[in-house]
Specification:
Layout (H helix, E strand, L loop, with lengths): L1 H6 L3 E7 L25 E4 L7 H17 L7 E7 L10 H4 L7 H5 L13 E4 L5 E5 L7 H15 L3 E3 L15 E2 L2 H4 L3 H6 L4 E5 L6 H10 L2 E6 L11 E6 L5 E4 L6 H24 L6 H10 L5 E4 L3 H9 L8 E3 L10 H9 L5 E6 H6 L13 E8 L18 H6 L6 H8 L2 E4 L3 H9 L5 E8 L2 H22 L1
Parallel strand pairs: 1-3, 2-3, 4-11, 5-6, 5-8, 6-7, 8-9, 9-10, 12-13, 12-14, 14-15, 15-17, 16-17
Bound molecules: thiamine diphosphate.
């Protein structure tokens, strides 16, 4: 529910309930469900207890139509309807309802339409005048990602600004030829001299800020003027910068060409990116160790075109941001990055893959285990999901915190290692499990995805060694960027 609100996803949630006379009287299995989701919904309504009366059916029709409308405008999000039922609950014949069938003809619903209600289309054209400007393409899960990328490409070319492309933005996965696409920003901005040389005056932020702490810190200190374009009324600026917000989808936005263009600035970005990217790519290609970041890197090279990928919170989303190679593979990214929870990861990925194209989930072990019972849906699941499980026995993300040097309490209270045998867990749910031995085998397994079923590819990694290797990669890439400027 919270992620639906955070990401602006329309969602209608129906909770079944006891009727009012069976609440607050120890009747069993009855809790207070009213406004259960607090402020996380666009609308809460408790439906009337059903009765076979036409007036009540008219009320139900209107209430459900209104609820669905509230799930879409003014801001898409979740709506909660609590639905009380009274005995008899089995579908037994009820003579009192037969008379109603006459009135429930097509005309009863005929005036309703499934189309989204027309919200006012606002468009805006802005003057972005600074010669030293950047576009930060942040998280954005649009379905028409090709359109988004085309609009972005036009905008970036006319402004002559580089695009810092998050892995959660279509900007990373579409061909933006003619623009400078920066993907190694987290690594290259670790070099303070490079960071100073590339400071922008204006920033156009699309959707919101990427995860990278390094990028966020650099932007917060830059003092740059920010224009944030996002189709939401929610505050998306955790950096509290000199920010103006335009509540628009990118397609409705345009910018005038700046009067002056500083080609040395955009060239510096290109050189820094090329140098840092080359180091990352070369070192990742060369490493034979099962370094967890290499899974994201290899997926970016090997997956079939336009594969839907759900990327879990914690290190998977960060490794995608650091290492996922840019290009025109049109990979479609999905994520729960509103509250950044590791809960519900498996079920969300199964929902994404159900009835659609062969899909991939990239997840850590704790995130997968949090929702392991999501596998119970397997007999009803139609489609294909390949789960790339990075098993580093605990929360690898915490190895990057200063507290990692203090053990105890680090292992027991932060890393929280687990000892689950995933082969046996998969067997219990009737899933195919493969323990990945090396990267050649992994590449083969993800280059062609099966048409049906759920399979788990387990990559056993070492979180301490991998945290150290990440740091080394970033340091090498940052040095190379420095040499390039
Ligand atoms: C529901 C929920 N509980 C706790 C957290 C805090 N948390 C963030 S990352 C993380 C560890 C995740 O471990 P894993 O999925 O194995 O990924 P890794 O850190 O190894 O990449 C935890 C517990 C959270 N984000 N969401």
């Amino acid at each position: 529910m919270i992620e639906a609100q955070e990401s602006g996803t329309p969602l209608l949630v129906l909770t079944a309930d006891r009727p009012p006379e069976l609440r607050d009287c120890a009747s069993g299995q009855a809790i207070d469900q009213l406004k259960l989701y607090g402020g996380h919904v666009n609308l809460f309504h408790e439906l009337a207890v059903p009765e076979p009366r036409l007036e009540l059916l008219r009320y139900l029709r209107q209430t459900v139509a209104h609820a669905w409308q509230c799930a879409r405008i003014p801001e898409p999000g979740p709506v909660h309807l609590n639905c009380p039922f009274r005995d008899p609950l089995p579908p037994v014949r009820d003579a009192s309802a037969t008379g109603l069938s006459r009135d429930l003809d097509e005309a009863f619903f005929g005036h309703l339409s499934g189309e989204a209600p027309a919200a006012g289309r606002i468009t805006a054209r802005q003057r972005l005048s600074a010669p030293r400007g950047i576009i930060v393409a942040g998280p954005c899960a649009v379905t028409a990602s090709g359109v988004y990328a085309a609009v972005l490409q036009r905008l970036a070319s006319s402004l002559h600004w580089p695009v810092l492309a998050d892995a959660l933005s279509p900007a990373r996965h579409h061909d933006l030829s003619g623009t400078v696409v920066v993907t190694a920003y987290d690594a290259l901005l670790r070099n303070a001299r490079v960071g100073r040389a590339l400071l922008p005056r204006q920033v156009l932020c699309l959707g919101g800020w990427p995860t990278s702490k390094v990028l966020r810190g650099w932007l917060a200190q830059s003092g740059a003027e920010v224009l944030l374009v996002a189709p939401t009324a929610r505050n998306r600026d955790a950096l509290h910068g000199r920010t103006r917000t335009l509540q628009l989808p990118l397609e409705n936005f345009d910018a005038d060409r700046p009067a002056q263009v500083d080609t040395t600035y955009v060239t510096a970005w290109r050189q820094a990116e090329e140098a840092a990217r080359t180091v990352l790519d070369d070192k990742l290609a060369a490493t034979r160790n099962l370094f967890e970041g290499k899974a994201a890197w290899l997926l970016s090279e090997s997956l079939p075109e336009a594969t839907p990928v759900f990327v879990a919170s914690s290190m998977p989303v960060r490794d995608a941001e650091y290492f996922w190679r840019p290009g025109g593979r049109r990979t479609q990214f999905y994520f729960n990055r509103g509250a950044n929870g590791i809960d519900g990861t498996l079920s969300t990925a199964l929902g994404m893959a159900h009835g659609g194209k062969p899909s991939v989930l990239l997840t850590g072990d704790l995130a997968l285990l949090h929702d392991a019972n999501g596998f119970l849906i397997r007999p009803k699941f139609s489609g294909s999901l390949t789960i790339v499980l990075i098993n580093n026995r605990g929360g690898g993300i915490f190895e990057h915190l200063p507290v990692a040097r203090f053990d105890p309490p680090f292992e027991d209270y932060f890393a929280t290692p687990q000892e689950v045998d995933f082969a046996r867990l998969c067997a219990a749910y009737g899933l195919k499990h493969t323990l990945v031995r090396d990267w050649a085998q992994f590449t083969g397994l993800v280059s062609r995805l099966p048409v049906h079923g759920i399979r788990v590819l387990e990559v056993r990694t070492d979180r301490k060694r991998d945290a150290a290797f990440r740091k080394k990669l970033f340091a090498d890439a940052a040095r190379a960027a420095g040499r390039a400027l």
